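Protein: Cytochrome P450
Species: Zophobas morio
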Amino acid sequence: MLLYASLVVLFCVYFYLKKSHNQINLRKFPEPPGNPLLGHVSTITSTTRIINNVSQYIENYGKTVTLRIGPTFFPVLRTLVTTDYKFFEFALGGNKVLTKSINYQFLRDWLGNGLLISDGDYWKRHRKILTRAFHTEVLKDFVSVFESVGDVLIKKLEKYDGKPSVDVHRLITLCTLDIICETAMGTKLNVQSGENSRYVQSVQQMCRIVIERALSSIKFLNCTFWLSNDYYIQKSALKILHGFTLSVINSKRNKTVHGETKRMAFLDLLLKVSNDENVLKIDEIQEEVDTFMFEGHDTTASGICFILHCLANHPEEQEKVLQEQKKLFGIDKNPIVTCSDLQDMKYLECVIKETLRLYPPVPVIGRLTTADVKFDDCLIPKNTNIVFFIYGLHRSAEFFPEPEKFKPERFQNFDSAFPYAYVPFSAGSRNCIGQRFAMLEMKSVISKIVRNFEIKPTLPRHELQLSVEAVLKSVNGIKVTLKRRN
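Structure follows.
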């Protein structure tokens, strides 16, 4: 069956490959040994092997390597994978490689032409409009949502006080999904209370399918994707996801927001721009809301979970975070927290940044060349897929002494001479538009947990098994022990 599917794939891409004969230029970059027929997907067989395999390729063959899907003489796709700082600086800091890579197209059925995937003038226009939704004054109003939803999380965590361990991943993911839904759409999803479980399940299914399509010769192309069971799972999931967001939009679109003094959600702001300036259609608004929902909850949940893991295993750093909280709020575990308070949590910010260095929620990002580009005396041909291995760059001793150690202090005086060495939110013109939102949300949730609980490692100590899915996760969960503070 696998051989048959591979032959189908080869015939489907034949004419595409005739136009891409200049891929031979990529042979200037070393290619690690791979299966003659299947390429490197025969080695990277699961999401849990991506980090180790790619790290070994980089260590053994150089900072930039060529990987392929398909046979040596007739590849479906060749991809450059890099941890080269100069390459990061060239591509992310310039304007010659702005188009997202081919793998992002697996998200198109869900997110349409939203900000994550779109490019060209369409992307520039939407980026300019959406930037308004992340203005400082807007973010200040979102803090109350972070805090109220976080209070529900604390109630959930109280059930695990003194127990040997708790896997925080699901609890944190439900919390961030509630936050993103209320801030993005102004609607309470209440997933922490067990409501809207079908929506949660659909989000999780789509996140899994997106990454697995990149690792499967059958699922990779649309013309063969329908042969897999995931095609039908995706259809069902998208019906639920799109149906929910569309129903919320329709319930709000006729409401005026002119002169409104109450907090406005991301959706309210987009509808206001659409009504005032007539520049966004309803389907465009839905695509951007779906994009924000996708990008905004799973990445933040990943970050928070790994922060808890790091604090559990580094009690001295956790104590410094706690003392900073006491300096701000005294012994009050549940103070009224403002945006200014969150901004004053300087040491916690260092802890967050150091965790995102070691465990970047988005460990790889991709771009596609839309024309021949010259880099470092080498011509990279049009239609080349480029993967920037952020996880690998973040652990480079060249930029981070003792890179495997958790040292938040390194960010108290971080040398900005190499701005593209630390890119947890990407960089350049296509950086994450919601990074300030994410930082405030993580500070709110983490500070609330630290004020209420001492976070300890489990016995025996829980060892992470990292997996590159839509975001970085641990397939065996992220387990800690919680002890209620007196």
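Remarks: Residues 1-22 have pLDDT under 50 and may be disordered.
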